[in-house]
Amino acid sequence: AYDWALAHLGPPRRFGLLAWLGYRGGRAGQHGIRDLVVARRGFAFEADPKQEWQLATRILDSFPYGTPVFGYPFFDESIYHDYGVPVNEPLGVGEISRSGKFLIPSTNSTNLTVHSWFRAQPVHTRWEDQPRPADPRKTYVAFLISDGDNIGYVEGSLRTRHFDDPARGSIPMGISISPWLQVYAPQMYGYYVHALSPNDVLVSGPSGAGYVYPTEDPDLDRYLQTTRRLIRLAGLHSVWILDNGYATSPPAVTVERYVEALRPAAIFADYGGYFVPNPPSVSFQGGVPVVHAMWGDAIPPGGEDPVAATVRRVRLAAETFPGRPAFVLVALNTWTMGYSQAKAVMQRLGPSYEVVRPDHFAGLLKGAYPIRP
């Protein structure tokens, strides 16, 4: 059926977007993006990224480089609903990346035709990373909340899970967000920018202008050109990179290309380091801090208490950090960890651990390492 549609409904370039509705397993699909798919003359398809990867690849490869892919490569999986573990996500995002497309995650998105009607205006967001002195007796900890690149999540769960948390504002926090939100829902993006507490900052990710694994993108420079334009529009200063299907960190050559193209204030990498951050936990590229995160949750999810598991791994990361002061970046699993849980982590760690905003974290790194490659 998809081969017939591609052959008879016009050349692929006539479609404004792709919509991967995922493998439903007999359950209801991602109906909230129907209005956008129709309004933008999109091409929608379903495919299991594991069992039907050849079909998915054939469809993706039929469309021009840079075609946005909405939806998600899976949907309504019980494991995802229970633990926030996206089954087959690395396979699907890898297939999208290798085809030269990028994913705009939009599970649970609604009314994007209405939200995108408003015109996006350049905005400014807080970022203060000037070098500052670091106390060698301390371990500095910074938290980043995951999944902000999912526009559907931002429409609902970011607010209900985190912005409505009474602990918000009482602990420094970095919040991942997609710069595409400023294009497809600029009023919503403005809400989050203006609702930030003095202890909050925004980080672009993953991995810039749409979710890709950059090492697998056949024309990464074009992707980074789009990223540069969008993060400037959204007023974002740093970027969070996921690569290689979570399996390994982005290689040095990929980080170098990000630095050269974007000139970011900082680069954050990985969701984990499931025991300690992938080495090196801290490095510099062209004077830009590059920090690898450890995972803030139980492993596997749903096992032990996620706060206790995170405390244990932060201590291990601090003990194995090469030098003093120690620096530990924690990627919080948004489905189980947030402001209240991060606050509990810091209370258990004790006074020798100090939590700071991610931009201040970068400034402390600059102060601790005055000579940077």
Strand percentage: 15-25%
At the fold tier of CATH, the topology name of the largest domain is TIM Barrel
| C-alpha termini separation | 54 Å
Q: Can you identify the CATH class of the largest domain?
A: Alpha Beta
Helix coverage percent = 25-40%
Mean pLDDT: 91
Are there runs of 5+ residues with pLDDT below 50, and where? none
Query: Biggest sheet: strands, sense, closure?
Result: 9 strands, mixed
Number of helical regions: 15
Q: How many domain regions?
A: 2
CATH superfamily of the largest domain: GxGYxYP glycoside hydrolase, C-terminal domain
Architecture of the largest domain, CATH level 2? Alpha-Beta Barrel
What structural class do helix, strand and pairing data support?
alpha/beta
What do you see in this structure?
The chain is built from 15 helices and 13 strands. It has 373 residues and is an alpha/beta fold. The chain has two domains: 2-112, Cobalt-precorrin-4 Transmethylase, domain 1, CATH 3.40.1010; 139-368, GxGYxYP glycoside hydrolase, C-terminal domain (TIM Barrel), CATH 3.20.20.490. The strands form two sheets. Strands 5, 6, 7, 8, 9, 10, 11, 12 and 13 form a nine-stranded mixed β-sheet that branches. Helix 11 crosses helix 12 (252-262) and helix 13 (306-319) packs across helix 14. The chain is globular and about 70 Å long. It starts with a helix and ends in a 5-residue tail after the last helix. The model has no long low-confidence stretch (mean pLDDT 91).
